[in-house]
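## Example record

The block below lists the input lines for one assembly entry, exactly as stored, with component labels intact.
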Amino acid sequence: MNKLVVTDTQVSAGIERALQITLRGADELLPQDEWTRKLQRAEATGQPLRIKFGMDPTAPDLHLGHTVVLNKMRQLQDLGHTVVPLIGDFTTLIGDPSGRNSTRPPLTREQIEANARTYFDQIRLVIDVDKAEVRYNSEWSDPLGARGMIELAARYTVARMMERDDFHKRFHGGQSISVHEFLYPLMQGYDSVALKSDLELGGTDQKFNLLMGRHLQQEYGQEPQCVLTMPLLEGLDGVQKMSKSKGNYIGITEPANTMFAKVLSISDELMWRWYTLLSFRSIEEIEALKAEVAAGRNQKDAKVALARELTARFHGGAAADAAEQDFANRSKGGVPDEIAEVALPGAPLGIAVLLKAAGLAPSSSEANRLIDGGGVRVDSAVVSDKGLKLATGTYVVQVGKRKFARVTLG
Amino acid sequence: MNKLVVTDTQVSAGIERALQITLRGADELLPQDEWTRKLQRAEATGQPLRIKFGMDPTAPDLHLGHTVVLNKMRQLQDLGHTVVPLIGDFTTLIGDPSGRNSTRPPLTREQIEANARTYFDQIRLVIDVDKAEVRYNSEWSDPLGARGMIELAARYTVARMMERDDFHKRFHGGQSISVHEFLYPLMQGYDSVALKSDLELGGTDQKFNLLMGRHLQQEYGQEPQCVLTMPLLEGLDGVQKMSKSKGNYIGITEPANTMFAKVLSISDELMWRWYTLLSFRSIEEIEALKAEVAAGRNQKDAKVALARELTARFHGGAAADAAEQDFANRSKGGVPDEIAEVALPGAPLGIAVLLKAAGLAPSSSEANRLIDGGGVRVDSAVVSDKGLKLATGTYVVQVGKRKFARVTLG
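Predicted structure tokens for the full assembly:
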């Protein structure tokens, strides 16, 4: 992680603070002195800096890990700079031209725009989309034409391309690389030229591509952008990177109660990491909270505050209040205020069939296993008889600590 | 060199002959059985085959070495096939996009067309340009667009590109290769797709690029072209490849007398090689000539016949007759019929100054060396006195065996 090293002694308090905000939680800022000069120029001229953030319009279902970079954009937006979310529609319209990767079918213009809308509906809870300059890279990529592509490709060498980690490994590991794969980082870098970007944000795994933008801007006679990499967020387990496939994630559209409870489940150490990377609280506020905890305040208070902040961000203050109350109730073993209402026909119904039909168990056999384990309650009483049949009426059915449904049999 | 290996036993005499003509003097025909099948189909359907020959519209000054491939096209044209000279204007319009190679400035459309005209004025003495289908590759390269370039580049791997000899050497020798250099062979190969080429001709040094066309046609779902490589012609010395820079060439626009005399200067062995690669005579005629020489006829007769044929091709029969007569005169030590007429003022003139002024020696000091060597004659008499001054009058001045001028001093 970067340390705050101010190379220019004539830096104002405002610039120093902006630099601190830039560096908060960041992995690398390259080169820091150029960023300082850009900040100084912006302050002197009143001309905001341009912050590029590229995104692929294919996977609009975001989790908190994706919001780390968005948060940084929000912080820079709050400093008065122009955030430029860039939708990489050009390559998405092409899909995988080798036809070998069926997970990347070409998308239509309509699909891309629908994905972008879904995306912005989600990210507008983190950044101010209305103040952002949203761009699509097909705007300048198509007009490049075949000649522009050749001219662009002339700006980089094969040897440097091979230095990219994945290309290096694949080439020397005998795995094939198609020639067009060398064109993608060039196109992505050219986006920085077209946008006259001052800073590009990305994950640490994007560093090669971000530096390409810097290189190409110099090739095309522009002041090069700086590069700011953000770490990948650790998931609920505190060890692995947050990802859907690992199940250690919080989706930003997950219900308020779930989101709140999941935040409460993380370790104290991970909580402070999340404060740095996810909270909108200032560095000073977080330091004050840490001091309180060091002075004896319960870590859980800080965790509840984080859970409230994140839940409120995505669901509003009232939902966060309710989620907090719900979590407290369940912690005491009570039934949450709001639980799913399920109406099922065909009473009397066997308990295993009911659990499956109400979505409380994935299958009847799994339902039976849960009963055997003593994890199923009907109206607070543990069910021990797998043969139990329930007649017409309404029951609160509970599986484990957190799954509830109010089931009405008819 | 390929041997005539007919893999299909059901081949007609006509096909066998066409195959023989294809293989005459060739280095490689790949794959021969596919070419046989194409010839058979052409014979069966009456549909001529399409013979692609790419050329760079930058160097329109041709020597006999360049005509080896043209001759092969002529032979295939005589068999009824369609010759497609392809002018690679697309990359020429771009020039060297890295700006590092000043020897490849971008040419304008007008310059390219002027070069092409000069080119066709020269090659129409070898192939029937009016029957050929002349094409410019910008016709389909520009419409490819940025997307088409990416789709094209997806059809080939970096590893296979690296197998090309010059790329391999440069990469492993630490010399830089720009990414756009990988696009050029792809563009060239795509020309075969656009032209639906059946056969591509080129020098042995072009084999990689020719096979690229074959590969890409398969990728784009076409019947692939065959590839025919022709050797590089040995120059006057019989050892080095003919080239301008080595001075061992015969330019196809050189004067008839020079051309004739240069052909007569080659070795007997080289003469038969040139018969194979340059003569329009049939294989049978050449075999008959060889048999006559074996039976005692003078090799020089065969060489005169070759010199006549080539001189007549580029200058017409009458000029060839005159060149033959001129050569015979000079061989007997006589003065050729047509010699340069030079009028010089300032008589009396020193012999060394005169030789330089008349273009018979590059400098006065070189003129003096020639006199010392006994290589200078005035009106047939060897000059031994470097101090000789010539008064007003007309003199035949000779340097060595072949340089003459009729100098009138005033």
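The longest helix of chain A spans residues 299-315. Residues 181 and 377 of chain A are 56 Å apart (CA to CA).
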